[in-house]
Amino acid sequence: MAPVSLEQDVKYLPLSLVCAHAATVAYLGLTVARSLHKTYRDLPPSQGTRARLVRRSRLAPVFAVLASVSLAVAGYWTLSYAKLSYRVWADQRSVNAPVRFYGDNGVLPFGENATRLHVTRWLSDTPVYLDALEIITEKARRFWWGQQIDLAITSWSLLLAVEGRRRRIPSLWAYLALAHLVNLSFAQNVFYLTLLLAPVPMPDLPSASMLGRLRNRAFPPKPVGWVPHPALFLASYCLNQVLIYWAPATVGTSTFASVAILSRILTFAPVILPAVVPASWGTVYSDHHGAYSIVTDLFRFVSSVSFVFHLKGTALGLLYNAPDAHYHRHSRFLPFDRERRSAWERTTTALGKVLGSASDHPVVASVAWDVVLSGISQGLWAATRALDVNDILASSTPFFRAHAEKAQPPTRLSEGSEILTPESETGSHGGAVSTRRKGRSSKSEFDGDSRNRSGMDFYVFASFCQLDAQPCMAWDREKKMQTKTNS
């Protein structure tokens, strides 16, 4: 290939977008940190017991470490992708690329032996964001990883809309933006930290800033107990699924960029719509249990659709046997050379090829690690909540709940008996477990966090199945507990 001349008009917009990306991540991190501080500062005195403080002190560092690992993984693979993309661009234009970061023929120290970087020209010629998305989407095996993140972010946005509004967590949009700009596992673990520090709904205080007052004047706050009509969530969700389904067919066309951008914008709809739509587009429930069936059906539908999409993606990935399926636009500088990769392709199984596609490219590896870390975080969160597998399946699988209840008739509590359940954690994610006798008011049990055991989008088996079940499963368990109590 003949070298391409560097004498072209330099565009500064791509460089501005990259700088804005980094600055936005820093700003969102600061916004979320302020939200965490405000949440912890405004905790009521009832959340300051020794048992709750000990539990929070044990769990908070775990999720903080997971968030740090997710951030480090995202940064490492992003730099690896940038390095590979720049090397390909430099090779096409016969430009010297740095051999190392520091030393002779490196970037630093500046001097005669340093290699000059043409970052602005590289970004002007290379659509780095579009290339990354196309590399993930253009082959069925790689899209097997990418589709999981797309489905997970879509359902996780519903979680933020439901659980975030219930706890009145500020700046929900920042968590979702971090999922797009960094990765999902980082945003998840930061949100888990918020849930640990906000086991009860935050006080609804009037905004003191001018921007907040203008926002409340334009979009009046909704009354307590207001729940938007589920059709608002379903409309944005279904449209997003259509775009995810359509995305592979648009790779390499001018439509792909529009599909990718619109798909990411739609994920913000569940977080934004409840704040901007009129109150008449929803229902006010005097008892929060009245919304259980709505949210349960919503997440069960999400789980079913996600599972169907994942089955389709798995089947396409297993059946995809095109020659050189691992090759892409940056294959010239792959560490995994052609001969070794071809031998591996001939000897491994179809499942091994799908899982091995994570090593095709740094952007695919970044997504694959995000899937794995998200699954680890979800599994750890489920373990700390003592969730039951039968409840998970009942909340994510149609008709499973009916069979489970037939097999296990409800157990009545005898007078004076005591029960010990995960739901009886004295209204806190970090609370101590307490007992409750029959005949006592159920109000204490359902105050704070135990009113709604944090609807978490459950996909512990993230690399194998999309079971977005934990939100409705948590509410199903509480509803079952209240039924037993009232009986």
Condensed summary:
With 487 residues, this protein is mostly helical.
Mean pLDDT: 75
The largest sheet, given as strand count, sense and whether it forms a barrel, is: 2 strands, parallel
Number of strands: 6
Percentage of residues assigned to helices? 55-70%
Number of helices: 19
Residues in β-strands, percent: under 5%
Distance between the termini: 79 Å
- Alpha-beta content class: mainly alpha
Order of strands across the widest beta sheet?
Answer: 1-2
Description:
With about 475 residues, this protein is mostly helical. The chain has one domain (about 15-200, about 210-400, about 445-485). The chain contains 19 helices and six strands. It has a two-stranded parallel ribbon with strand order 1-2. It has a two-stranded antiparallel ribbon with strand order 3-4. Helix 7 packs parallel to helix 15, helix 16 packs across helix 17 (about 400-405) and helix 16 (about 390-395) packs across helix 19 (about 470-485). The longest helix is centred in the N-terminal third of the chain and has 43 residues, at about 50-90. It is globular. Keywords: Membrane, Transmembrane, Transmembrane helix. This is Alpha-mannosyltransferase alg11p. It comes from Colletotrichum orbiculare (strain 104-T / ATCC 96160 / CBS 514.97 / LARS 414 / MAFF 240422).
